[in-house]
Structures are given as structure tokens and as C-alpha cells.
């Protein structure tokens, strides 16, 4: 399951990602990307990789976690006796 994420602090609104992946990324009124957070279909993953590689400030990442959405791992706990 792959999802695109953008780091809004790093992003400088070049707009390359929206040009390379218009199916999932569009630009707001200021030129910053709005990303559809749904998992990418297999046919879009390669296009997403190209968009990630094209980002000049490394603000775009592809999260390829296999964990289902909303299922975070439990934190380790230690018991006191
Ligand atoms: S290509 Fe990178 S810097 Fe440009 S809008 Fe997309 S995420 Fe932001």
C-alpha cells in the first residue's frame, strides 16, 4: 500500500509533482500541492516515484508501508513487579 506525502515545511511550490501526477496531486491557489491521501493503485506507483524523484527539495515522499491504515504498532511497555 503506497501513499504520497508532502512535507509542507520543505515544499517550495515548484509544482512539478502536480504536472507529473495530476491524477493525485493538484495545486492550491498559492501553488502548493494538495495530495489525495488514498492509497495509490499499482498503475500509479511508478508515476508517483517519478514525481518524488523530480521534487527539487525532497519534499515529496512515497510511504510504502504494508500496514493497514489506522493500525499503528503498540508501544513497548515494561511491567514493574
Ligand atoms: S515538486 Fe516538491 S517542491 Fe514542488 S510543489 Fe511538489 S512537493 Fe512542493
Structure report:
The chain is α+β, with helices and mostly antiparallel strands. The chain has a single domain, classed as Alpha-Beta Plaits. Helices cover 22% and strands 17% of the residues. It is built from two helices and four strands, in the order βαββαβ. The strands form two sheets. The protein has a two-stranded antiparallel ribbon with strand order 1-4. Strands 2-3 form a two-stranded antiparallel ribbon. It is globular and about 45 Å long. It binds iron/sulfur cluster.
Task: Describe the secondary-structure layout.
Layout: E1 3-6, H1 16-20, E2 25-27, E3 33-35, H2 42-54, E4 60-63
Antiparallel strand pairs: 1-4, 2-3
Iron/sulfur cluster binds next to helix 1.
CATH architecture: 2-Layer Sandwich
Unique ligands: iron/sulfur cluster
The geometry reads as globular
Helix content: 10-25%
Structural class category: alpha+beta
Strand content: 15-25%
Average of pLDDT: 86
Which fold name fills CATH's third level, the topology?
Answer: Alpha-Beta Plaits
The number of distinct β-strands equals 4
Tally of domains: 1
- Strand and helix order: EHEEHE
- Spans where pLDDT lies below 50 across 5 or more residues: none
Distance between the termini: 41 Å
What is the radius of gyration computed over CA atoms, rounded to a whole number of angstroms? Answer: 16 Å
Strand arrangement in the largest pleated sheet: 1-4
Number of helices: 2
Largest sheet: 2 strands, antiparallel
The CATH first-level class comes to: Alpha Beta
Amino acid at each position: 500500500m503506497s501513499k504520497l506525502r508532502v512535507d509542507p515545511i520543505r515544499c517550495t511550490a515548484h509544482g512539478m509533482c502536480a504536472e507529473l501526477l495530476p491524477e493525485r496531486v493538484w495545486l492550491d491557489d498559492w501553488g502548493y500541492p494538495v495530495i489525495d491521501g488514498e492509497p495509490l493503485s499499482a498503475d500509479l506507483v511508478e508515476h508517483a516515484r517519478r514525481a518524488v524523484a523530480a521534487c527539487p527539495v525532497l519534499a515529496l515522499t512515497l510511504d510504502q508501508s504494508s500496514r493497514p491504515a489506522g493500525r499503528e504498532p503498540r508501544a513497548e511497555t515494561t511491567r514493574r513487579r
